[in-house]
Design brief:
The protein has 5 helices and no strands. It is an all-alpha fold. It has one domain (about 20-105).
């Protein structure tokens, strides 16, 4: 009984100390990989208070399945290609959007 209680307590402690933002919760059927999601969230946080509002980054998070919006649509790989022509930092985002779009198309 003591071993079982100790094991249960250890699990509770692990859950209690796990950072709540360590992993984004994905509500979509296909989700983006964690490192790129963290990068995009960082870009969104840097830009959300600027004049353009970081709306593109929020739309990417919507496409990644970790954010929702009643008014915004998900960012597409085609849009990311256009942005990549301006700044090559969009390349990994475009690649992940392409992967997600292909996977979602495969599941349909």
């Amino acid at each position: 009984m003591r071993t079982l209680l100790t094991a249960a307590l250890a699990v509770c402690v692990l859950i209690a100390v796990a950072p709540s933002d360590a992993r984004a919760v994905c509500s979509a059927d296909v989700c983006a990989k964690e490192p790129i999601t963290q990068t995009v969230r960082h870009y969104y946080d840097l830009n959300k208070n600027k004049a353009d509002g970081g709306e593109d980054w929020l739309r990417v998070l919507i496409a990644f399945g970790v954010e929702t919006s009643g008014t915004l649509t998900a960012f597409t790989a085609a849009e990311a290609r256009t942005q990549e022509a301006i700044w090559d930092g969009w390349a990994p985002v475009r690649k992940e959007l392409e992967r997600l779009e292909a996977e979602r198309a495969r599941l349909e």
